[in-house]
Design goal:
It is globular and about 55 Å long. It is about 35% helix and about 20% strand. It has a 6-stranded mixed beta sheet with strand order 8-7-6-9-11-10, sandwiched between helices. It has a 5-stranded parallel beta sheet with strand order 2-1-12-13-14. Strands 3-4-5 form a 3-stranded antiparallel beta sheet, with helices on both faces. The relative contact order is 0.17. α1 runs parallel beside α10. α1 links the parallel β1 and β2. By secondary structure, the protein is of the alpha/beta class. The longest helix has 14 residues.
């Protein structure tokens, strides 16, 4: 079956170090759209952080944010899907991150109504803000925000080994039907609702919104939070900069982000 929907990750896929869509990639996306193929984005980013990229490719289709916890149609300003973390669970995980000996090693973010809340502004916060283009709210205690609701928790540490240890431990504490645990980079540990992953979000967009089958979907991604999306899509492509386990589930591996890997994949599969 012909591809009718192309879903792209942002960071490490269409945007590299420059934090902008590379010209060759943008040109290839426009050519794909000219063929009548729907194109949209699925990202771990906040909605309004991802929106400029969505606008840059002139997509008219819903945008998937927060690793699938939030799907919104920008042109209609219509929220199609939202999965907030269960409050009790989110507070438990926050307590885990703030236990003695761990609190000082982690930066913790939570998100409420598409706003970013942090305990305090740190150099890591500033790096995150510089790339995401969002305004953080330093509130000291994150509990009052989480008690209202949070769409995602993010734990950040430059200690890669620590992040891996946390993921392993929390996978042992919680079942997959309780919570979704993933990484968007080797130092970002992301926690969302059990039904919030890119695979389920792309499935909803393709099947329920557009009336398509998995075989009509192509997805390109570069990290662990793309795994479910790559497994769902009839045609899946992993970036050359993706970790080996991510590359292992893809149908094809393209070049890395700084070498316009997305453009290469689109030329091979959709523009030939």
């Amino acid at each position: 079956m012909a591809i009718k929907l192309l879903v792209l990750d942002i960071d490490g896929t269409i945007a590299g170090e420059s934090n902008h869509i590379r010209p060759k990639v943008k040109d290839a996306i426009r050519k794909v759209q000219a063929k009548g193929i729907a194109v949209t984005l699925a990202t771990g980013r906040m909605y309004h952080s991802a929106l400029p990229f969505h606008q840059a490719i002139a997509s008219t289709f819903p945008l998937i944010a927060y690793n699938g916890a939030w799907t919104k149609a920008p042109q209609q300003d219509q929220l199609l899907r939202e999965f907030a973390l269960p409050t009790t669970l989110a507070l438990e995980i926050l307590d885990y991150f703030e236990q003695a000996g761990l609190r000082q090693k982690l930066e913790v973010h939570c998100y409420h109504q598409d706003q970013l809340y942090v305990r305090e502004i740190t150099p890591e916060t500033e790096r995150y803000v510089a790339r995401s283009g969002v305004q953080p709210h330093a509130v000291g205690d994150l509990r009052p925000i989480i008690e209202k609701s949070t769409i995602k928790l993010l734990a950040i540490s430059p200690q890669v080994g620590l992040i891996q240890a946390l993921i392993t431990d929390l996978h042992q504490r919680y079942a997959t039907h309780d919570v979704h645990l993933t990484q968007s980079t080797e130092i970002y540990f992301e926690i969302t609702h059990a039904k919030a992953n890119k695979g389920l979000a792309v499935q909803h967009l393709a099947e329920d919104y557009l009336g398509l089958q998995p075989e009509q979907v192509m997805a390109i991604g570069d990290n662990f939070n793309d795994l479910e999306m790559l497994r769902y899509a009839g045609l899946s492509v992993a970036m050359g900069n993706a970790p080996e386990p991510v590359q292992a589930v893809a149908d094809w591996i393209t070049d890395d982000v700084e070498a316009d890997g997305v453009a290469l994949a689109l030329e091979k599969f959709l523009l030939a």
